[in-house]
Design brief:
By secondary structure, the protein is of the alpha/beta class. The protein folds into 2 domains: about 190 residues, 2-enoyl-CoA Hydratase, Chain A, domain 1 (Alpha-Beta Complex), CATH 3.90.226; about 50 residues. About 45% of the residues lie in helices and about 15% in strands. The protein has 12 helices and 8 strands. The strands form 2 sheets. Strands 1-2-3-4-6-8 form a 6-stranded mixed beta sheet, sandwiched between helices. It has a two-stranded parallel ribbon with strand order 5-7. The mean pLDDT is about 90.
Length: about 260
């Protein structure tokens, strides 16, 4: 089995992290493959994927136990011991929504990967934790910011300073997870959300995703951000998809969007 498995189901891409022998422990090679598996362009005739689900493959029975501790050697320290940044940045910038389906362990760097996703669905039986204080490491500012965008400083402080594990329901209450479901149900729920997103107008989804990211930036949107949002909005106003959406609503039928 490859470290990263990719399966396209209609307009939804399922990316499964493997390495079951090490509880899906992340390596630089695996993270590079994960990054390459992400769509790099918005949905179009040439790029039909409209949403992504990220999960641990079922064989390993967890999302990921985090970065492989045995890979932390002098060479890794020399480059700064931040292997998660590039793939997490790629997920955050992915032009289609990425939904994390979390079962069982989601630890350390894997938790940051999940926080980079657009949405997170976790089983109530999931175990989410950030153990850098237990390992003797100050976590990166970029990584911390992913948690602080979702939860309060006090929640993030407790998570990082204690290293305690959270269940899926508690993580949802604290804002770290969007939806908590019964054990074994995270993937099905994440896939259903992805399919719902994929059924919507691609230009609108891409434009809204980009607009929300721009508006949510620290300090708010710049003049360039506002101009980009206005351009995306005007593109949808003139789109065939908007005409189709209005027609489908009036005719009481499901719309057929083509991303045009």
């Amino acid at each position: 089995m490859m470290p990263v498995e990719v399966e396209d189901s209609g307009a939804v891409r399922v990316i499964s992290v493997s390495n079951p022998a090490k509880r899906k422990a992340l390596t630089r090679a695996l993270l590079d493959e994960l990054q390459r598996a992400l769509p790099t362009a918005a949905s179009s005739d040439a790029q039909p994927i409209r949403a992504v689900v990220l999960r641990g493959d079922p064989a390993g029975k967890c999302f990921s136990s985090g970065y492989d501790i045995t890979a932390i050697d002098e060479a890794e320290k020399t480059v700064g011991l931040d292997p998660i940044r590039a793939p997490a940045d790629a997920i955050e910038a992915c032009p289609v929504p990425v939904i994390a389906a979390i079962e069982d362990a989601c630890m350390g760097g894997a938790f940051e990967i999940a926080m980079a996703c657009t949405l997170r669905v976790a089983a109530t039986s999931a175990k989410l934790a950030m153990p850098p204080a237990r390992l003797g490491l100050v976590y990166s500012a970029r990584g911390l910011s992913r948690f602080l965008r979702a939860a309060s400083p006090s929640t993030v402080q407790r998570l990082f300073l204690t290293g305690e594990r959270l269940g899926g329901a508690e993580a949802q209450r604290k804002g770290l997870v969007d939806l908590a479901v019964e054990a074994g149900g995270a993937f099905d729920e994440a896939k259903a959300i992805a399919e719902q997103i994929a059924s919507n107008a691609p230009l609108a989804v891409a434009g809204l995703l980009d607009a929300i990211r721009r508006v949510a930036r620290p300090g708010g949107p710049s003049a360039d951000d506002l101009a980009a949002i206005d351009q995306a909005r005007l593109r949808t106003v003139a789109s065939a998809d908007l005409a189709e959406g209005v027609a489908a609503f009036l005719e009481k039928r499901a719309p057929v969007f083509r991303g045009r």
